[in-house]
Amino acid sequence: FFLFVFLSLSLRDRANCCPMEHIDVQSAERVIAEVAALYTDPENGLIRLAEHVGKELFPPREKITVLLIGNHSAGKSTFVNWYIGEHVQRVGVGMETSKATLVTSGPKRETLSGPATLSLFPHFKSLVGRAGSDSCITTEVSPSKLRQFPLVTFVDTPGVVDNMQYNFNIDETLLWLGNVADLIFVFFDPIGQALDNRNLDIIEKLYAASPSKVRFLFSKADTAGTDRERQKVLTQLTQSLCKRPKLNSFGFEVLTIFVPPDEDSPCVNQLQEVCEYIEQAVTMNMQTTLNSLRTNCETLLADIDDYLLRDRNNCILRNKIVKRRFVLGLSSTVFPVLLLVYLFCFLFKGFFGGTLQRNMRLVQESIRGIYFSLPGDFRNYVVIFLALWSAALFLYAYRRTPPVVLKRETVEKLQRDRAFVREVLLPKRDQVYQKFFNKRAEV
User: Fold this and answer.
1) How confident is the model at residue 154, as a pLDDT?
2) What is the DSSP letter of 41?
3) How many whole angstroms from its chain centre is CA 419?
4) Residue 423: CB partners within 8 Å, gap ≥ 6?
5) Residues 6+ apart with CB under 8 A from 307
6) 214-218: strand order across its sheet
7) What pTM, to 2 d.p., does this model score?
């Protein structure tokens, strides 16, 4: 009862509400293009700079995604055609849409198959694995500039019917699309009402995952008869939805719409509100894009600082390891060198004469004197100990490999990257942000 009262009041109040300020589509497109250029510039783009520190960034989404679901002949394709002002989707009483169709703006009118669609929308490739076939998706491109269409991609989906076989996994497809969509419009018509269990199961899962994205639309409201009959259908629809636990929430509402608009019709038409939801999502996407640009710049600065700090620490550690190697390595060679010198003098002193022979004999006698100065019972043990100690010192000196440090050219390049982000990219982002939203405030 309370839901019905809320629904009735909502229909009357919203019918008289003033339309929201309209976004300047051309300005928004320019902003998106400027932001995208800051990411994709081949020399100093954020994507390129992030690669220098081993990070991966992606350009912002230029358009929002609006998912349309409901039973067949519920008015989904008719709504798309009306919104863009062009007949791109077939409409009729029977099921006209047999696959998920992306309707997006482009320079000319054309139709793209599944592989071409995945080339245009690479983030949809994971959908193919869920759906089981790339035939589940196609694209209709339109040059229309009506309303916010240049900033919107509609996803028109087949009607979901119980016990009907599809060429792909329709349930997984709709759930995946609902996860990536910015808005989800659920269409109910006076006849079918999209109240099949299979359809309601999908709607319930989508609503449970993201209730803020879902909007319920009572389409073809002008064909529902008199106001009394229309309210009756709406009441039955609301009651059926509220039987689902995850759909029975406070603030539940259904907007009544019909296409094309008819000012003489006594039925309240809330198409304007539907357009406002789309415009709000576009504006939110603009804010998210600009905020993400600042966040990515700040994250990249932190990554560069961390990269340079690690390199400085590696330089310090490398110097310590090299010094330790030198000292310990030199110490470990004292005993082997004395032993080799003794053996060399012992074996080759007869091949030399004069002063050199006397010097070699003197060195040999000195080393022998050191040896015989040791206690007789411990001489061999001392020699073995010194040999093992020398080997241990050598192994300890070379137990760690010095870390790799950046070349001077690389360090200088990272420092230039950091300065570029601070002095160019961040001020450019602030300039674009102020320019766009100051213009919004003046509208």
Assistant:
1) 94
2) -
3) 26
4) none
5) 53, 414
6) 110-112, 137-142, 100-105, 152-156, 64-70, 183-188, 214-218, 254-256
7) 0.71
Which residues of the chain are modeled with pLDDT < 70?
A: 1-24, 92-98, 129-135, 192-195, 249-252, 350, 437-443
For residue range 380-414, list pLDDT tens digits in order. Answer: 888 888 889 888 888 888 888 888 888 889 989 99
408-420 vs 271-332: helix crossing angle, rounded to 10 = 150
3-state secondary structure 58-77: CCCCCCEEEEEEECCCCCHH
- State how far the Cα of 198 lies from the Cα of 306, in Å rounded to an integer: 51
Instruction: Calculate the CA 286 to chain-centre distance.
Output: 16
CA angle 418, 421, 427 (to 5 degrees): 145
Cα 430 to Cα 437: distance, rounded to the nearest angstrom? 11
Record the tokens describing residue 177, joined without a space: 């699309």
**Closest Cα to residue 432, out of 29, 33, 38, 31?**
31
Q: Which residues pair with 413 in a beta bridge?
A: none
Q: Could you read off the pLDDT of 275-286 as tens digits, one per residue?
A: 999 998 988 888
76, 100 contact by CB (below 8 A)? no
Peptide bond into 266 cis (omega under 30): no
State the average pLDDT for the chain: 81
Nearest in space to 137 (alpha carbons), one of 109, 157, 107, 160 = 157
pLDDT tens for residues 41-78? Answer: 888 888 899 988 888 888 888 889 999 988 777 888 88
Cis preceding linkage at 211, omega within 30: no
The tokens describing 328, both together, are: 């310990």
State the greatest distance between any 2 C-alpha atoms of the chain, in Å, as a whole number: 131
Structure tokens at 294: 């600042």
Contact at 8 Å (CB) between 182 and 53?
Answer: no
